[in-house]
Structure formats: structure tokens, C-alpha cells
Amino acid sequence: MSEPEITRILATDCGSTTTKAILIEKQDGEYRLVARGEAPTTVEAPHEDVTRGVLNAVAEVEELAGRRLLDGESIIRPAEGDTGTDLYLSTSSAGGGLQIMVVGLVRRMTAESAQRAALGAGAIVMDVLALDDGRLPHERIERMRQLRPDMILISGGVDGGEERRVVEMAELVAAANPTARLGASYRLPIIYAGNVDARTAIEETLREVAALTVTDNLRPTLERENLQPTRLVVQDLFLHHVMAQAPGYAKLVPWTDADIMPTPAAVGNLLRMVAEKEGITAVGVDIGGATTDIFSVFEGQFNRTVSANLGMSYSVANVLAEAGIENALRWVPYEVNGGDVTNQVRNKMIRPTTIPQELSALQVEHGIAREALRLAFEQHKALAAGLKGVQTERDIADAFSQELSGAPLVNMMELDLIVGSGGVLSHAPRRSQAAMMLIDAFLPEGLTRLAVDSIFMMPQLGVLAAVHEQAATEVFWRDCLIPLGHCLAPVGRYREGRRCLHMALQMPDGEREFDVSWGDFMLVELGEGETATLTADAALGVDVGTGKGRAMTAEVSGGQVGLIIDARGRPLHLPDDERERTDTVRKWQMALEAYPEVDGP
Amino acid sequence: MKVVHAYTPGLRVTERTVVRKLRRLPLPGSVHVEVGDVVRATDVVASTELPGRVHTLNIAHELNCQPDEIHNFMLKAEGDVVEHGETLAEVKALFGLFHSFVKAPIGGTIETISHTTGQVLFRGEPIPVELDAYVDGTVVEVHRSEGVTVATDCALVQGIFGVGGERYGELRVPVQSPDQPLTAGLLDDSCRGCVVVGGSFVTIQGIEAAIEHGATAVVTGGISSEDLDELTGEALGVAITGQEDVAITLIITEGFGELAMAERTFGILEGLAGRRASVSGATQIRAGVIRPEIIVQTGAEAETGSIEEPVSRMGIGSQIRLIAEPYFGRLAEVVALPAEPEEIPTEAKVRVLEARLADGTIVTIPRANVELMRG
Q1: pLDDT tens-digit map of A177-195
Q2: DSSP H stretches of helix in A332-430
Q3: Distance from CA of B63 to the nearest CA of A (A)
Q4: Is residue A305 domain-shared with residue A347, that is, in the same domain?
Q5: What strands lie across the sheet with A98-103, from one edge to the other?
Q6: Residues B251-272: tens digit of each pLDDT
Q7: Residue where a domain terminates, one of A250, A280, A313
Q8: For position B8, what pLDDT does the model report?
């Protein structure tokens, strides 16, 4: 018997401030986005019922799409004519998302594996406690009590290895007797995913103080990580323990046709599915006010990191502190007073909803965004890596190659797609500004496609991907992504002005041939929906992804910006001389027509 | 159509409210008060002992033996109390001709002796912790072994940002108006033990003078980023503060730069001059927001009843403050509220308002960049 056809899908994402609803319908054999609505999330007083925000957002969708989806306070199912929906799904990061504290033995080994498991499950890792974290035991206890996580993940020890230390760490957890963030009346969920031999002792230690769940060791041997069982337990506990305590979720859960997912887990799910289906590597970034999330799929492995203190409002002062004001301002094509900028940035931090009014303030904001993205990506590359602590057999060649265990998975030359989202990228007044921020921060190599998710519907599509892959994929490519275009960046020994590529382009309006020299940064117009065949003949020692000195031929699709050729070299160097620097940055901005005027503040 | 509201940080500035403060020990201990007890801010309401610092020593390494052999040489057992320098283990070789000793690196208790690793864990003397009431008030709840909740009928002023922990002192207002900077010349030894309220601005010299004269806290409209960093000794990163090691608590009510304190805030604080205040600079600007605060118990003496003044909506004639460049900190009056989004110099299309500045100039401002003034 065939399943009834899904013709209409309603999905919501309950964010910490806004609940966003999207409506998808099958039209002419294709799934398309029909409408999107939003309303404030209602998990705090005076409403304290998340379903209020959901109903308000859905009501807006009803109005915009001219459909009837609600019957009083329930969602009508199935879809018939203009009424009802076949599926209703939701994600949630309301109330600050899923906050986990990780406890492990060695910071760079089991504790890092546990961190990867927690992040991959969509959590915010509040802190990582480990034997070698430099803290005294009572400081660790105090930290656990202070932070009030939603759950604690304890890892440690390979199977059959040292038991005592992991039990010692569990004893600290027991001594802290931490209370849960939401709902004082329920016991804090603790997951144990460490050495199997220590399970009995761990159970004895923690039985009295917490709701303990034991799962497979996430690092059974030094050479192997086994993160999936832990991720599933984290998500299950999130749904049934943590969210069940949040106001109104008990009502929302039975409304949905699939488990509610933590928002970042849904985004990861979507990116992983898209990468698998298309056979591509991808990086997704969501730069928010407080945090920057980065997702990547390389060599079939999905990784996610959250840079908790890199963001554009709540954490904007920290971006300046971490990157250094000179780094943030190097992207601005005129001299700026650092002291004034620091005051402005801190005022943005304490009044996070203000927006740049003048072009100069916008340029400063975009400079800071580049640094936030750059730092977040560095953190991502460090965590999205092979396992550390593994003894590998090495021969004499390895000894010179620095290919140590723990080598990063992220390979920019292999990267096919970068998707940017978050206000500063999605709402940049010109799309070329978003393209430049992505290129300058991530420094793609070879041929890379750039896109932005204009209204951040990746969470809803991620939860949909778990239920209806086809609908999620079709809407992702047709309505979610705004294609910016491709970036072609040669890599090799940079010699200013020397020819590095010979380009031949078969464009919709004819053929073009031209040389590209080191230092060039140029835009070739190629609009959305248009394609071109590109042949890049690399000079000796220059690589565009096919090997040094080799030619590459590829089909490229256009976008709202076009085909960007970036021969500024990798890594990117800005001139030290102030006048030269401002001239260079201005030249780059003009090449992409990124800003309306660049004469200065 | 979406409605865009002007942002107000939602700071509470009220002459009378009831504040409940949970005072919780870091570890279970003893509670020294009962429900109904009237307490002063500095009264100790609960106390405990934190476990002493842990020190580890590998006996097997020290004696050059196998971990499972150390029991042959240990002179002390788990649970024994040892003094600093006391002999813990001893090896005699060649019929007692050669001795090797291991001495205790600290005084404390031997917590564990591992025959797997040869490691001995010492725990130092417990560290006593006393928790005070923080506010003048009444104990309304006792959390067994954990702490208490103290309620106070008080005036409450929340700042927008602060540094430094909980402190106390008499409120002192040496400036004449909310737009007068708090300078070193206004401070003298009469500020000792006081919470000093300034007007628009304080420089690092002003703060240094306040510290020199023994003030416990400074409350002012604004401060420059540079001076703040000089006070804390580091560049401010995330707005999660309260734990810094600073000699004085600083609370700013308006923002970074020179900014007149809001009239209403200044008026309330001026009216409370001479009263005992509890202050905290602890700030957390994100989910679970914490604002710095000035709390003064007033009880039934306050002239007004329970005040939760309604937030008025913005309209033509509303007094506003501009909270982003290029007009940051300036006061203005709303003269028009166009309904449709307009393009601003960045090319973004946003909802705007037109406002008249004090010098009569009419300017167009994104609505997100203004704050409604009250009182």
C-alpha cells in the first residue's frame, strides 16, 4: 500500500527570541516554500507557554498564504484543499538551547571526543572539566554548581583502561550535586559514556544525585570514536527531560509528527544530508548575536562547533578583544579611531539591537564579522580533526610532512560549498558584501560555491530531512539558498603582478579569454540561473584544485554576485603601510561593487 | 505587517519594589537564621567549609619502586592527618645503611593512596566560607543546609553595565546634576565606606581618587572603554562580570562614553542620599540577564506605593535618546514616525523616525537606534 502523498508541510523553529514558521507545498510536482511567518517566542513571563508563539507564527503564515491551518488552538490535519497540513514539525533552541557540561579525563582526548559528541547533538558546551584543566577539585565543584547545565556528559577512559580517574571525576559531580537549569523539582540528567569497566562504580557514585543514563563508550579505544550512541541519548534526554520542563512543551510535543530536534542538530542534519546526496563537501556558518556555529562535512564526517563568545551583538566586544582591534579595522578602507570604535562596539554589546546607520559603521561591523568568522573557523578546524592521542606508525617521509594524528579534516581546496547565515550575512545591504565577508574569513581555495540562507530556514528543513528527504532537498536548493556565485582562488607562490591563470569562459553571451595575475580580485558577471563553462589554465606551480600547473574545466553557476576570481593569494596579506592598505581594501571593494562609496567616514 | 518596537533595555528603576535574594552556599553547610529573622546586609546567614586544596604526590616515582610496592614503605594510611614535612614513606636498603624518605608537601589529610599509579592525594585544611545577607531585609525562606532567601522592601536601580562584586555603603551624591562628571576634586575622606553617585562620567583618575578615599562603589552615567580596561587590567570581552578582582565596584547606568545619567535614575539616587545601599556590579547580558544593581531598603517609609510604572509607547513628542552613532547619547524629540521602511545611508531599508535634536536640527534615525526616556 502506498503512503498518502504529502502535499503540505508546516514547520516551526522556536528560537530563543523568535518563533519562525514556514509552509511548504507541492506545486507542479515540486516542493516549494509558500510562506513564512514569525512571532516572539513565549517561554518567559507573562505567557510562559511556547505554543503561544507557535500559534502566532502559524497565524501569520495562514494570513500570508491564504490557507487555514488552525482550528482554535490545534493544527488541522491532513491537508484538504486550502485547509490543514499533512505534516507538522518543529525544532527548538528556546530558553538558551541545550546546555551541556562535559566531564572527561584528558582535555585533548576523551574530553574532546565528548565535546564533539555534545556539539554534534546540537548542544552548547558550557565548560569542559578534565583532570588536566588546571583547576583544583573544589573549583570544578563550584563551576558545576554555578553553571546549572541542562545535563552533564561524563566520558573518560578507553574500555578496559584506568577506571579510578573517571570515578574520581564522577565523585566531584556527586559532591557538586548540581541542580538543573529548568525545573528545580527534577533530577539532573547525567550521561555516562566512558570506560565500560567503571560503569558499576559510576552508578554507585551518581545514583543518589542524578538521573543517570549509561551508554556506549564514546572513545572505546584510542584509535576509535563512537559518538552516535551518545548523540542519540543527548537528543532523547533533551526531548523527554529537558524540554518537558520548559513551559508549554508538554503541549507542543504531541502536536508534532516527528521528535522535536535541537535547532543546531537539525541544521547539521540538513547539511549532512545535502553533502551526502550531492557527493560534495560543505561548510555552513550561522553568525548570531552571541555565538557563531560552524558545521562542516568533509570525508563524510560531520562536525559542528559553537564559538560561544564570538558574535555580533552580545559578544561583539569579545571579538575585538580576541582578534585585536587592528585586525578588525584592517578591512576598513580608511583610518578609524580605535578608541571611538571600542566605545561604539561596547555600546552595541549592551544595547544589542541597534544597527549601523552610517556607511562607516557598516564597514566596521563587516570588519568585525570577518574576524568573528575567521576565529570561529579556526576553532572549528582545530576540533574537526582526526583523533588525538593515537599512536601512528610513521616512516621517514611522514617525519617531514607534519601529518600528525589530529590533522584537520577541513581541506579548503576540497571544499565545494559555503553557506552563510545570520543577520550580518543574510541582511547585508548588498549581496557582494556577504560574499566578500565569506571569502575574506574562510579563504576558500580552488573553486567554491557561495550562498546565503536569507531567512534561516535550515533548522526547519533539517527536521524535515529526517522525515521527508525529497521535500527538504528541493526546498533547500530552490528557496532556502540564495546563490551568490562561485569563487575561484588559485594557490601557489604569490608574486605580485605575475600571471597565474589563463581563463577561458564560455558564457551565455559568448566566449571570453583573459589572463589573471597575482593580486587580481575581479568579478565576472554571471547572473542567477545562468551557467558557464570555465577553463582555468594554471601557471607553473599554481593550483586551482587539479594539481600544480594543471588546467581545470568546470561548469559554474551564477548567482546574485557572479563569478569571483580571487588571486590575492593564500594566506591573504594586507599591506603594512596604512595608505597602501586603505587603497588596496578600497580597490577590492570596488571590484565587487560592494559599497556605494568608499571615500571615508 | 511586522511591528518594530524601539528597544529599551528593560532596566528597572523604581522607588519601591520587593526584591527577593537567594543566598546559596557553594557547598552544603549550616544556616544560621530562621524564617522571619530581620537581617542586616552584612549579617552572616550561612556558612560552610570548602574542601581544602588537593595536592598529589607520586610515591612510586619518589622511591623509585613499583606502584604495587608502595604499601611496603608507607608510614601513613588513608585518612591519616599529616603535618607539612612529616615523613610519609621510607625505604631502607642495605640493612638500613641507606634511607630514602618522602615527606608531606603540605599539611592535611591523606585522601587516597593508589596502588595502581603510586599516587597519593592530600587534601589541605578546609577553607571556611561565610555568606552574608547582602541586603537589609527579612528571611522569608530557609533552604536546608543550602542558604536562605532574603526579601527586602526597597528602592531598586539597575545599571546597564558594571564590574566588581557585592559591596555596601552609605549613598553619597557629590555632584549637583546628572550631567556633571564625577571628578577627583569632588571626592574626599568623607567618602570612606560610601557608594558614590556621579553624573555623566568618571575618569580613571576619578576612580583612583574614590579608591584612595575608601569609597566602596562608584555609580555614574558612563565611562570610557579605555578607563574601564585600566580599572580591570584587561580588555573587556563578554559582558559577564562580577568576579573581577577590583578595589571598587563600578556601575554605569547609561553606556560607554560621556553620558548624562537619566534624570529619573539620578533623582531617585539623590533622594536616597545618606541611606545604606547594597550594590553589585555583576552583569550578564544574554539569556538569564543579570544587571548591576543598587538596592536601598525603604520599607513603608517610601512615599509611593508599589510602583511598576507602565512603559509608555513612542509617539510624536516623545522624548528619546539616540543610542547609536552618529548621534550617540544625544537627546531628541520625535517629530515624525513614517510607517514605511526607508533607505538609510548604509542602503538598508528599515523603519525610521524623525527627531529634533536640542539644537533644532531634524534628523532621520532607525527606530532600532533610539531609547524612550522616562521621567
Answers
A1: 776 665 555 688 999 999 9
A2: 338-350, 359-383, 396-401, 423-426
A3: 22
A4: yes
A5: A123-129, A98-103, A151-154, A189-192, A211-214
A6: 999 999 888 898 889 999 999 9
A7: A250
A8: 43
Q: Please tell me whether the peptide bond between A46 and the residue prior to it is cis, using omega within 30 degrees of 0.
A: yes
Nearest CA in chain B to A39: B2
Selecting from B161, B237, B325 the residue whose C-beta is nearest the C-beta of A350 gives B161
Adjacent-strand bridge partners of B366: B352
C-alpha cell at B89: 614513606
CB contact at 8 A, A412 and A444: yes
Assess contact for B341 and B332: CB atoms under 8 A: no
| Rounded Cα distance, A442 and A436, in Å | 10
Best mutation target, B223, B225, B284, to test chain A (most A CBs within 10 A): B225
What is the grid cell recorded at B274? Answer: 545618606
**B26 strand-pairing partners:** none
Give the total residue count for chain B.
Answer: 375
Nearest CA in chain B to A163: B116
Q: B190 and B279 in one domain? A: yes
CATH assignment at residue B342:
2.30.30
Residues A435/A484, Cβ–Cβ less than 8 Å? yes
Mean pLDDT of chain B: 86
Please check whether residues B251 and B280 belong to one and the same domain: yes
Which of B346, B354, B364 should be substituted to probe chain A, the one whose Cβ sees the most A Cβ atoms within 10 Å? Answer: B346
Report the pLDDT averaged over residues B112-132. 80
Q: Mind telling me how many Å the CA of A173 is from chain B's nearest CA? A: 12
Q: What's the total number of domains in chain B?
A: 3
Q: Which chain A residues are Cβ-neighbours of B54 within 8 angstroms?
A: 136-138
Rounded average pLDDT per 10-residue block, chain A, 601 residues: 79 84 94 90 69 92 94 92 95 75 86 86 84 81 79 90 82 77 70 94 87 93 86 82 75 91 87 91 90 88 82 89 93 89 90 89 96 94 71 40 58 96 91 98 98 87 94 93 96 95 93 96 95 96 96 96 97 94 95 78 47
> Is residue A511 one of the residues assigned to a domain?
no
CA distances from A72 to A12, A64, A254, B160 (A): 18, 18, 16, 41
Given a contact cutoff of 8 angstroms between Cβ atoms, the answer to whether A208 and A129 are in contact is no
- From chain B, pick out residues whose CB is under 8 angstroms from the CB of A343: 224-225, 256-257
What range defines the domain where residue A121 resides?
A: 97-250
Name the domain count of chain A.
Answer: 3
User: What single letter denotes the amino acid at residue B249?
Assistant: T
Substitution target from B141, B240, B286, B351 for chain A, most A beta carbons within 10 A: B286
Rounded-to-10 torsion of CA A562, A566, A572, A575: -100
Q: Please, is B93 exposed, middle or buried when counting C-beta atoms within 10 Å of its C-beta (0-12, 13-18, 19+)?
A: exposed
Residue appearing with cell numbers 486550502:
A82
Residues of chain A positioned with their CB less than 8 A from the CB of B369: 354-355, 357
Q: Residues near A185 by Cβ (< 8 Å), separated by ≥ 6?
A: none
Residues of chain B in contact with residue A137, where contact means CB-CB under 8 angstroms, are 51, 54
* Whole-complex ipTM: 0.80
How far B367 CA sits from the closest chain A CA (Å)?
Answer: 9
Dihedral of the CA atoms B135, B137, B139, B140 (nearest 10)? -110
User: Domain residues for B279?
Assistant: 13-47+132-301
User: Is B2 among the domain residues?
Assistant: no
Whether residue A357 and residue B324 make contact (CB cut-off 8 A), yes or no, is: yes
What is the grid cell recorded at B63?
622511591
Does residue B99 sit in the same domain as residue B144? no
Question: In terms of Cα–Cα distance, which of B280, B32, B33, B278 is closest to B140?
Answer: B33
Cell numbers 546628572 correspond to what residue?
Answer: B178
- Long-range contacts formed by B22-25: CB under 8 A, 24+ apart: B22/B143, B22/B147, B22/B148, B22/B149, B23/B131, B23/B132, B23/B133, B23/B134, B23/B147, B23/B148, B23/B149, B23/B150, B24/B131, B24/B143, B24/B146, B24/B147, B25/B129, B25/B131, B25/B145, B25/B146, B25/B147
